[in-house]
Amino acid sequence: MTEKTRKRDLRTRVTYVIHERVRTYAAAHQVTVYQATERLVLLGLDWTGAPTKDADIALPESIGQLAARIDVLAALADRALFGAFVAYTYARYAALESLTGDARQTRDRELLEAGQETYHRQRTQALES
């Protein structure tokens, strides 16, 4: 309220009860009724989230920060998926190492189906969250 800005006259009529509450607030904070009214209006606007010029500037900046964080999270998810894929590949080779012929092909198909099933299940759960 110490800002040097052009002020506009804003008048309103209030009930006696509201006027007394403003006067009580003014007395408690050792300001005039006019200053108390201005503070209370600003507090009310802040509480309701009424936009300000600063908010208009901050919104695109906030969106940019969120986009950057989303990119980081996407990269982390890709790395986690890659790590899971590498682990699956090593486990698959270990499971198939001692098998030959039809047994190897059958086991390979089973492992591939189980891996795809797990992938699709995890993907579905992630999209539902």
Structural class: mainly alpha
- Which ranges are low-confidence, i.e. pLDDT below 50, for 5 or more consecutive residues? none
Tell me what portion of residues adopts beta-strand conformation: under 5%
Count of helical regions: 4
Radius of gyration over C-alpha positions, nearest whole angstrom: 32 Å
Proportion in helices: over 70%
Q: Give the tally of structural domains.
A: 2
Name the quaternary structure.
single chain
Shape: rod-shaped
Q: Strand count, sense and closure of the main sheet? A: none
SSE order, one letter for each helix or strand:
HHHH
The overall average pLDDT, rounded, is 81
Distance between the termini: 46 Å
The overall strand count is 0
Q: How would you describe the overall organization of this protein?
A:
It is a single chain. The protein is mainly α and 129 residues long. It has two domains: 1-50; 52-129. The protein contains four helices and no strands. The protein has helices at residues 16-29, 33-48, 53-96, 101-128.
